[in-house]
């Protein structure tokens, strides 16, 4: 792992991944001192993490690659309560069965980014383990007495909700105390000395720092990164902003790739620095080459390849890349069978018998590339239809075109309308 000046904190600073922090000098010293536990938490209120969580997972990976212990916390207990941060109204509460299912799904996604095979290097914990056994009297005595209401009311996330139309319930008001107790438990049991999270979590994060100082007379550390927002300026998450999931059943590797390919030219370098595991110098070199010829989209392609590989694996990245090339290439004949299989889930797709291809006009209408027989004939006369990259005229027959891999026929109208026909063997 190549770091800026061999310093992980300097590397994170160069990537604009530190927004707020406890004393930077002591944070840097803690990281340099040797392996320590670093934790990032996310509430399992859905059965998939999303791009908004990806910063935290990548930062955990950076710490793990630097020799530290990555602790991912699935907030099964706090997920039952709901975090008021970044929200205008209270979220729905989930039952225990749903939360258990969500945690199991999230572990699969985490394991592709952070190594969870060795608990000394990386582990996933669920705060229900230590939160559920606590009685209300124990919680008030052991946690509540160490936090003043004045402190809680001063937190920005609380102030926003109190002054909102919906207000805030005592349930969500208590979230901060639960999260603070998580940090205390992880400090006591897993040697955790650093908590990380988005800037909207900063009030909750430093509450844990304060609790450990008061109860253990120990100095622990924390930092946050700038909040990731969607194009409309809203927080990027499960219920706000764009929904880009890490579960391939919700957002396919191809769609995930297209998300990164849509990155604006001006944002390419910042996105690479935030998400890619490449060294900072290498990223800046890629950004420089991209700036010289932005039409080649080198920056977007590098970002997309890196992120699909990280989240879904090298094979999925290759298939998604080939499928995109297949869709936008004038000649699809060199594409692999896997690329066609991937594309079948992304564009209109139908199955036909080989005999049906004898009726070219009928095929074009059946695939919705033409609205009627007359429309099909007029468009054929204009040479606007293509079959496996071959331009069709009004006298050409689709059945004369060679099927790719013995069964695929990629039809196109103009530049953007596609339909994939799979021939039953």
Keywords:
5-stranded mixed beta sheet, 5-stranded parallel beta sheet, 425 residues, alpha/beta, 10 strands
Can you put this structure into words, describing what you see?
There is one protein chain. The protein has 425 residues and is α/β, with parallel strands linked by helices. The protein has 19 helices and ten strands. It has a five-stranded parallel β-sheet, with helices on both faces. Helix 12 packs antiparallel against helix 15 (298-312), helix 13 packs antiparallel against helix 14 and helix 13 packs parallel to helix 15. The longest helix is centred in the N-terminal third of the chain and has 16 residues, at 96-111. The chain is elongated. The two termini are 50 Å apart. The model is unreliable at 86-90 (pLDDT under 50).
Describe the protein's topology.
Elements (H helix, E strand, L loop, with lengths): L7 H7 L9 H10 L3 E6 L8 H15 L3 E6 L21 H16 L10 E5 L1 H4 L4 H7 L6 H6 L1 H7 L7 H4 L1 H16 L1 E7 L3 H15 L4 E5 L27 H9 L6 H8 L4 H13 L5 H15 L1 H15 L8 H8 L4 E4 L7 H7 L6 H9 L3 E3 L2 E3 L15 E6 L3 E7 L2
Parallel strand pairs: 1-2, 1-4, 2-3, 4-5, 6-10
Antiparallel strand pairs: 7-8, 7-9, 9-10
